[in-house]
# Entry
Amino acid sequence: MKQKFTPNDLIRFIYKETSTAENLGIKEALSGDINLSEEYNALMGSYTQLPKAKFDPSKNTIQNILRYSENTAVQTQF
# Structure
């Protein structure tokens, strides 16, 4: 029995959130279903145009965090 994949399944596949078994099923379905393949290509095209998130805080932000940490750290007494 062929499994029917939804656009949500394709999005999860694009973002690598599918299991190994799902990956195999989706890849097989993509090679045999032209409509699913066209939908995947449209979603993939949109995905590649999205801006990529950057996770590099500025030096000023890092300094503010470190300063806050120093000011709020619990002092231990020996």
